[in-house]
């Protein structure tokens, strides 16, 4: 982090001065501004060096640095969205799927995106339809806390589904009506 210049390290004169209350004093010589800062018991900090004349403010330098670091840290944390990956295979057992499901729900609760990969190996390629069914089932178990981004993709031997957390989880009533509709569609297909 580039630290702003303060007190005697401010080289350019004159400067536009802002006092400790945030009121603009005007354009004055650096020495006069420095004297006002000393009288107030604070530092003269160059807030904007790229303007003509440069803008300087009378403030506590340590507190100013603390607030700068705090705002940078907050900015970094708000832009952070991780993509967590859940891997499984065609022969992944039911208990292992439940564990992976639990982990996926934890990731989604933390507002992280989840990528579910199902990899087909060896003779599994013969049963691509079972693999597709298995990943669809996994995604459907997460439908109350996550939304599917796009569709389930197939690249070579890998099925991929990207999930984002829902802003508000679905209510039980909505779940049941969706399940009823799905059962009706399945019974019509049979």
Structural overview:
By secondary structure, this protein is an alpha/beta fold. It folds into 2 domains: 7-62, Ubiquitin-like (UB roll) (Roll); 83-170, Translation Initiation Factor IF3 (2-Layer Sandwich), CATH 3.30.110. Helix content is 41%, strand content 27%. The strands form 2 sheets. A 4-stranded mixed β-sheet has the order 2-1-4-3. Helix 3 (94-109) links the parallel strand 5 and strand 6 (113-119). The model has no long low-confidence stretch (mean pLDDT 85).
How many DSSP helices? 5
Q: Which value, in Å, is the CA radius of gyration?
A: 30 Å
CATH-derived architecture of the largest domain: 2-Layer Sandwich
Estimate percent helicity.
Answer: 40-55%
Q: Could you give the distance between the termini?
A: 65 Å
> Largest beta sheet, briefly?
4 strands, mixed
Order of helices and strands: EEHEEHEHEHEEH
CATH class descriptor of the largest domain: Alpha Beta
What is the count of distinct domains? 2
Output the structural class: alpha/beta
Detail the poorly predicted runs. Answer: none
Average predicted confidence as pLDDT: 85
Q: Let me know the CATH homologous superfamily of the largest domain.
A: Translation initiation factor 3 (IF-3), C-terminal domain
Principal-axes shape call: rod-shaped
The tally of strands reads 8
CATH fold annotation of the largest domain = Translation Initiation Factor IF3
Widest sheet, order of strands: 2-1-4-3
